[in-house]
Batch of 2 targets.
Target 1
Amino acid sequence: MISKHLPKIITLILCFAEVGVAAEPARRINANEYPSLQAAVDAHGSGGGILTIPPGTFEIAEPIVVKTGETRIEGSGAATLIVNKDTTGKPALIIQPPDIDKNKNAEIWRVHVGNLRITGNPKSGDAIYARRVQEIFIQGVSVDHNGGNGIHLDRCYEDPRISDCLMTYNGLAGLQITECHDIVVNANQFEDNQDALRCVDSFNLCCNGNNIDDHKRHGIVVENTYGSVISGNMIEECNGTAIILDRDSYGIAVSANVVAHHLGGGVDLKDANGCAISANSFVLCHGFGVKASAESTRNSISGNAFANTYIGGGKLKRPILEHENKMQIDAGAGVVLEGSSDTVITGNTFTGLDYEAVKATGGAKRLLVTSNLLTECCRRSGPEKPWIVIEDSAGSIVKDNLGAK
């Protein structure tokens, strides 16, 4: 009888192997029952499960290392606090396959981290460092005052999701993403990191509905990434630039963001092609609203509002023209093209700007600048000067702009 059913038994075994049946069953672990968080994590075995961490302060000197997939680390909200006491740059929480150092292609799947807080010190490393974790999901986590990044995703290629997290006062980026794709970064808050979000060597970033404020350098930095959308974010008061697209980025939509109060500028297309910059509000940008270099071509800049703090009735909300703190000065900036070609600038409003609405230099060519509205430009350089300046206008069309001088 056994021999009769042997082919079916073998088939079932192979099917179970294909879907990755765990060698051990998933377990529910309560950290209270173990001498350390690491011991509680290790108790999962290879089958994964859920680790519940109760309220309390947990000081660690070595990283907590999670090596099992199908695992959830669940805290008790802000009452669960992990404090990284390390001063040699080590992360607080490492998530990675058990054999990652021997097998560069090793991976684990579906690790969730939620509802806890991780803090460190200026000499500690990342709060959470995850590498080769597919479908990682981090939600409702607070990471602050860590010496490295708040959250660092390293080659978490398949469908990483970061949502409803608070990333503040970290020495590097609030969120660093390296070699990932189909990425969701949604409804998070970033404040006073070096940069808010860095996404490099990746694609299909969906970055929406985040609040980004008070960064020492930049807001969102995207490098060597394509096919992405950055929309509906509030980005305020970066000492550098709100959004940077660099290193062969292409096919990216930057839309419906509020880009407010930046010393450097709004959107810097350092090396970006085939991108749409549309329906954004650029207010109180001191350096530029949108800037594009010679490496950035074939872009569309349309339907944006470039403005200062004008509130109607001839009044400014921030009337200060000179102040020791530049952030206090009323300002507005437009589009600067430094050699960029094949660019459309249409349907924008340029109002209350310190200098030109559009300035194209460095051999910028094949420009279409039409149907824009301009009011009160060149406030600092002299309103009698041209508000649209294109050094080499051959092959460009500049027409039907209302209010242009």
Note: The CA atoms of residues 56 and 140 lie 17 Å apart.
Target 2
Amino acid sequence: MVIDLGALWDYSKPEVSEQRFRAAAASATSDEVLVLQTQIARTYGLRKDFTRAREILAGIEPQLPRASAEVQVRYHLELGRTYASPVHPPESQTAEARERARVANMRAFEMAQAARLDALAIDALHMMVMVDSAPADQLAWNMKALAYMEKSDQAAAKGWEGSLRNNVGYALHQAGRYPEALAQFEKALALRLRGTNVSATRIAYWMIAWTYRAMGRLPEALEIQLRLEREWDAAGEPDPYVFEELAHLYRALKDESKATFYEERHRKSK
């Protein structure tokens, strides 16, 4: 596909992304238009309008037999995301919804694997943590996605490494395997430092500090979180997660007044 979807996406502003996709469709090939429509559906999912997202995907479905492998994979990926994703409220995650997501994700994975669309295959695997949410299951899916990335020779697949190492680290942290989690977070940070995404780099530092706190390395955690507080404040984007961690850290350090201060900052920033 000639159109660079990554350049059109702003995941924090799905309505803006939708406008970009619609504008790009004006000069796109018929197959590219279908790919763009799958991304428009995703923008509605991010806005929690899953009904509208499925309506858009339903309009694509009759054209799938004549569409490219990429269109077919993206159709199933986005369909899966309408049933299980990070933005779904917990009460929506019924056994039926999870099963529909599982079927769609696995269909996307199998088709992407067959077509050597490695980045999309990894995307499908990484979405399975929304379906199988037990920590051990999440770790297994994340490790499978990481292994798939490591054996791929495609640049788009390699671009997943930072996110995947973050996800593996998170799953290890949830399992209480803090040294292993820290090793993954440190690798993720090294990757982020090579790039230009400042927000992703700060998040990588936050994950390390979060793990330091779990390991009892409180002064190191505090140093990082205070620096992140300054950086996010200077950017005009105060981070509630930093405030929450600072409250935990100061409470662990027996400084109740500062813990209370950051609890208040956290409350006001949400």
Note: The chain has a mean pLDDT of 96.
